[in-house]
């Protein structure tokens, strides 16, 4: 029920209604429509923000763990290569490998971020439908 006591699925006002009554019904309907659209937009954006936040948190934790693994693996590789060549050259080789890994990861991360869509598609479609409905009501 609305504040005016009319149910949401009430029949449109009849031609016998007064101008004041028609304006009241229109105002109630537009107010309700606006509140519903805003609620839908909030819900969509909240869901997308939750997904992005959860993903960012998981990526952050994985990054810390991965950094530790990479650090110790790099030191191990450098010392292993240091057995067959000068330690400085071994360090340079390990650094070059990590530069390639960083470039590949940066390209992949950029691609993922480009696919993120914060636009509330359902709300936009619903507003378009509402606009069409309003046009038919004016005719």
UniProtKB/TrEMBL annotation:
Keywords tagged on the record: Membrane, Transmembrane, Transmembrane helix
InterPro entries on file: Phage_holin_3_6 (IPR009937)
Domain of life where this protein originates: Bacteria
Keyword set includes Transmembrane helix: yes
Membrane-spanning segments: 56-81, 87-107
Protein name: Phage holin family protein
């Amino acid at each position: 029920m609305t504040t005016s006591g009319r149910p949401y699925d009430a029949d449109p006002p009849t031609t016998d209604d007064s101008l004041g009554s028609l304006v009241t019904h229109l105002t109630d309907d537009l107010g309700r429509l606006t509140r519903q659209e805003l609620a839908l937009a909030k819900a969509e954006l909240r869901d997308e923000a939750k997904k992005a936040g959860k993903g960012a948190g998981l990526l952050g934790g994985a990054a810390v763990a991965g950094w530790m693994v990479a650090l110790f693996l790099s030191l191990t590789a450098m010392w292993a290569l240091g057995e067959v060549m000068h330690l400085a050259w071994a360090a340079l080789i390990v650094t070059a490998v990590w530069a390639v890994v960083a470039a590949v990861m940066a390209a992949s991360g950029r691609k993922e971020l480009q696919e993120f869509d914060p636009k509330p598609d359902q709300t936009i479609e619903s507003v378009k439908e509402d606009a069409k409905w309003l046009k038919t009501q004016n005719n």
